[in-house]
Amino acid sequence: MNPDRFLGPHKEIARELFQGIESLPLVCPHGHVEPSLLASEEARFPNPVELFLRPDHYILRMLYSQGVAMEFLLDTDKEPLELWKVFAQKFHLFWGTPSGIWLEYQWRRTFGMEDSLGPHNAEEYYHGLAEKLSSPEFSPRALFKRFNIEVLATTDRATDNLEHHQAIQKDDWSGRVIPPFRPDKLLSFQAPNWNDELGALQRLVSADVFIYQGFLDGLRERRQYFRSLGCVATDHGCLTPFTDRLSTAKASRLFDRALRRNLELAEAQSLQGHLLTELAGMSCEDGLTMQLHCGAYRDHHRALFEKFGPDKGADFPVRVNYTRGLEALLNTHGAHPNFKFIVFTLDESNYARELAPLAGHYPCMRIGPPWWFHDSLNGMMRFFDQVMETAGVYNTAGFNDDTRAFCSIPARHDLWRRASCRWLSGLVADDILAIEQAHRLADELAVGRARDAYNLTAQSAAVAASAGST
Amino acid sequence: MNPDRFLGPHKEIARELFQGIESLPLVCPHGHVEPSLLASEEARFPNPVELFLRPDHYILRMLYSQGVAMEFLLDTDKEPLELWKVFAQKFHLFWGTPSGIWLEYQWRRTFGMEDSLGPHNAEEYYHGLAEKLSSPEFSPRALFKRFNIEVLATTDRATDNLEHHQAIQKDDWSGRVIPPFRPDKLLSFQAPNWNDELGALQRLVSADVFIYQGFLDGLRERRQYFRSLGCVATDHGCLTPFTDRLSTAKASRLFDRALRRNLELAEAQSLQGHLLTELAGMSCEDGLTMQLHCGAYRDHHRALFEKFGPDKGADFPVRVNYTRGLEALLNTHGAHPNFKFIVFTLDESNYARELAPLAGHYPCMRIGPPWWFHDSLNGMMRFFDQVMETAGVYNTAGFNDDTRAFCSIPARHDLWRRASCRWLSGLVADDILAIEQAHRLADELAVGRARDAYNLTAQSAAVAASAGST
Amino acid sequence: MNPDRFLGPHKEIARELFQGIESLPLVCPHGHVEPSLLASEEARFPNPVELFLRPDHYILRMLYSQGVAMEFLLDTDKEPLELWKVFAQKFHLFWGTPSGIWLEYQWRRTFGMEDSLGPHNAEEYYHGLAEKLSSPEFSPRALFKRFNIEVLATTDRATDNLEHHQAIQKDDWSGRVIPPFRPDKLLSFQAPNWNDELGALQRLVSADVFIYQGFLDGLRERRQYFRSLGCVATDHGCLTPFTDRLSTAKASRLFDRALRRNLELAEAQSLQGHLLTELAGMSCEDGLTMQLHCGAYRDHHRALFEKFGPDKGADFPVRVNYTRGLEALLNTHGAHPNFKFIVFTLDESNYARELAPLAGHYPCMRIGPPWWFHDSLNGMMRFFDQVMETAGVYNTAGFNDDTRAFCSIPARHDLWRRASCRWLSGLVADDILAIEQAHRLADELAVGRARDAYNLTAQSAAVAASAGST
């Protein structure tokens, strides 16, 4: 692989900057890797199809968009090699896409393949990868170490018992894997299964979660439990970034209506928005960084969803706004010295218009890195271009890979780090930054900002290390 | 003219790519050229003012915006040279604009002028152009051949009798000119002249179009007629991309209210949105590619419109959204293997946010090239930058020139092809694509994707050729 | 400082262009400098903290966003040096931001400092600057001359008595300082202090401003007064660019309701929108250029506002639209030959979608330069990229620095001029412009377009000169 790839027009400066950060550990404070993979020394990845293709909605959607049936893609009875061959034949669809870049990196660098995938070498490629996957050197834990991962956050429901995290902590393994606290389902007051989720919460906490104040206390209890297993952040997904602030009486009343299943849509939104503000308040108390991911309209293709379930590539961004949407939350807790609030967007028109100005004022706020469809070279360059002048590097949250594809983690950090250095090299070339300043900012973007935004300080690392060795 | 123009910073790579596609035929599946121009061997272009200036709303609007009265611009009693001189004097207004680029190409390359237009050479320029225009070498059909046009689509109302298309097909001429099916006026249920248009339809079809099901059948009959003259696509213009799906009973009821002229605005939108879904269903049946152009607020400047009519440069884009707007249509027909659906936008904020993700999932969907105000070098670069990483090249529809200015066709394809190669050369320089991959994608962008999106396969070309020689 | 800074990849062309415009005078038709600074030969700037830091909301917001308390930042009892030291320690927050670029320019070029500011030299830096500020060479008037300012517009309420402007005109000083007419507070019909403002107006004019027609006449009288002191433009700030056109009877009725304090929100918006159209009509009469700045949601952080007042960095952009919003005004006065209308935006998604097409049609309209959060190198490049192809250079309004920081004026023009030449050099490199064309456009962008948009012709300059010498 070309050592100067993605470094752009000022290659010499960018290369110098990149060399300074290339071997820094990978800080991964937000992602979707299955913790079970790391819960045991014996865990292995399945075959190449189950590793690279089937769980990756980026791959599924692209093949589907060009006529490969979802029935075929998800048929686990089929010989994986058959599917792999179709994939190889259609691999030109991924030329120039981030998926193509990530896969190429994994195959070449992590798995040592010498060629690109194409129809001519599909079978050989498959067997070459499969062989490696079965060896201990390519076990998840071995790769965790080889990838030089400093910390890896998974995604866990507030009502998850975190058994894999417990196993990891109890085990004599030094890897740091932490569970974010994600209470979305408890806040989906109109979802058909909300009561079930509330019941699940009740079984885990001492508070009476069927009354409003008890519900809040129940959330607090779970946060404390998550923190005991290393949790440093919460995560919240919602369609639009609407926050609200209700009186306790009003919130209680709406909560009771939710319990009786007769909450109107506007009331549900109001209660959800209010809960986001309440949860921000809990972050002020317990120091968990709050993450907000919004703007994805989920399961747009309903027939597909009904047949194959969620996360099949039919989630699409919608326009949102932050200036008005976050007003209640930011006015209530935005200046609290203990509060860190990371906001992600799928609507890039907000980068320069709303997010950078907001983060450039409110002490709590940091802008999350380009997310999902924008987690690409151009997406990153647009982020740097549109965010940094107004927010400044220090009001961003560095990078997170946000991936469920464990093996793609180094590829994603590699792309981000190269893109950062590309951006910084332009500032040096334009005499906006001195090279020493650029070095410092490259470091911040690679690891510093992420550690700071998620309170992953040296101290926390020490705690985790001691926890790991307990 | 500089052979490396527009090729950008990686000129050597871009030039190599461009040389590979420069002489490919021009595939023109969407445009506004008058078919009468090509209906006879004897047709000639009028004088330079009537060719380059008066019919071009890009030119009119710019001159008007800088103080040239529309009365003067459109006064056909005036000596054309007088207007040409004003144009020459104001030609600096077009410096750096796509209009300037297109004109320069035509004058220099097609008409062999040696200089740029300016106040100093206005008269000489006019006469030089006028002389050429009167010669047979510069007849529309001669230029059609010289331009190497593989196929040219015009724009025709669903109730047009297509006499010029008939003349072209009957004539002993091999040029392929095809009529798209554009039923907008039949779907403008609240327009004052909707009933007239419906009456025009009734005179052309056997179905009773004054009842809802008959109206649908009438549309089907016309589609079949258009197809008999080579039609491969329909085209739909609307303010916003709203689609809906009504029961037949509901649709019939609204249609009846439309006939009685008492449809409310929201009902009209709903019926129109439903008809778009129905027309998509017809495309599943008959294989006509469906094009959707939306986001233009027409005739904004009402005094101007009332005095001079439409298409005088006072149409302006408005913000639209696709994720929700296309939901009904895509959920109903989006996965049909026979359906191709090309969506164009004037609201670029949708490129990365909505269009690329949607096209990267739904099998039917392709993203149309930069349209109207965005059909420019920067507009194209933004398109490549914001669309390709997520949608991939294969979910786009290649290029169409969308012009009513016949002579500008090669200039527009030239710009697109150069811009494509510029974009691809950046990917090669960044080591994202190998040069062979870039060659293949350049070819796809120049001709392959357009042929595929409009089903203009080799087979169709053969059919057309045989039709032409009948 | 690097003489090639910001000039981009085509440095040689850009440098040649920049050398042609570098020493042109600074035309400053919109800004927020205090006229009192220039009202007397004896005026001096206070210490570095009061000059560079405290009045600059860009600086305040960034320090605040990274944990410096507003109480500390605004405590005038504190030793300024103490604050300066904190500023120096946090100066890395401004790396890569326009504030950093502007400050660097001032310190290095205007004040001759040899180094950048940092924790190591904070005290020395402070004293070095303070010493210079106390000398006559660094008085506001001396700098006005040194900066080569051709004209400087301030920001003045419609009810301001303009005493400083009177003093400047009476004084034997040749600097041209002019007062724009800003009637926002008179149009804030629902503001608690609207009646007070109306009372202030009444004390200044002969018309009876408590009836609608008299209110209009009162505005006319004030416009005339402002014009007598050199005013060439009005300025209007509003949340959204909504304009309306009411009958006089309806407008009178709403005005009466406003007087009785029982105007509904929608009525207030309608009346305000109507007044914008009326004020455009007055511009047709008296030739004052009309400026519209919209899209800022003010005082978002209410606790901060209540404690420290406005302009503390808690104003944030919101999404707006122009195509529909400006329809009433443009339809009523958009083609008037005497009317110039400059529109600014904080929502960049409108550049290519709405503003460039509108300005490329309506004779009155010009697009203002990148404003506020977008007044940066990247913001300017996005402006050039997204506006120019459609609007053309001649439908823009050149540059204005829009600053309250007098000393930053040359830095801001320097950045704009370099960015212009960077943009133009790309067009020359791509063979879109000949170098002579680029020289002419560079000149237009530096001074020509601003003079033209604000009617700051040579004639006006002469009038001002004679007024200055009276």
Strand order of the largest sheet of chain A: 6-7-10-11
User: How many extended strands of chain A?
Assistant: 11
Q: What separation lies between the terminal Cα atoms of chain A?
A: 41 Å
Oligomer: homotrimer
Q: What coarse outline of chain A follows from CA principal-axis ratios?
A: globular
Low-confidence stretches of chain A: 458-470
| Fraction of residues in H or I helices of chain A | 40-55%
Quick structural overview:
Three copies of one chain form a homotrimer. By secondary structure, chain A is an alpha/beta fold. Chain A has helices at 11-21, 48-53, 57-65, 70-73, 80-89, 98-110, 122-133, 140-146, 163-170, 184-187, 194-204, 212-228, 248-259, 265-286, 302-308, 327-333, 350-359, 377-391, 409-429, 435-453, 458-469; strands spanning 26-28, 149-153, 156-157, 177-178, 181-182, 233-238, 289-294, 296-297, 316-317, 341-345, 365-367.
Task: Describe it.
The structure is a homotrimer of 470-residue chains. With 470 residues, the first copy, chain A, is α/β, with parallel strands linked by helices. Chain A folds into 2 domains: 45-137, Orthogonal Bundle (uronate isomerase, domain 2, chain A), CATH 1.10.2020; 140-469, TIM Barrel, CATH 3.20.20. Helices cover 50% and strands 8% of the residues of chain A. Chain A is built from 21 helices and 11 strands. The first copy, chain A, has helices spanning 11-21, 48-53, 57-65, 70-73, 80-89, 98-110, 122-133, 140-146, 163-170, 184-187, 194-204, 212-228, 248-259, 265-286, 302-308, 327-333, 350-359, 377-391, 409-429, 435-453, 458-469; strands at 26-28, 149-153, 156-157, 177-178, 181-182, 233-238, 289-294, 296-297, 316-317, 341-345, 365-367. A 4-stranded parallel sheet of chain A has the order 6-7-10-11, with helices on one face. In chain A, strands 1-2-4 form a 3-stranded parallel sheet. The longest helix of chain A has 22 residues, at 265-286. Chain A is globular. Chain A starts with 10 loop residues before the first helix and ends with a helix. The relative contact order of chain A is 0.14. Residues 458-470 of chain A have low confidence and may be disordered. Chains A and B meet through α3, α6, α15, β9 and α18 of A and α16, α17, α18 and α20 of B.
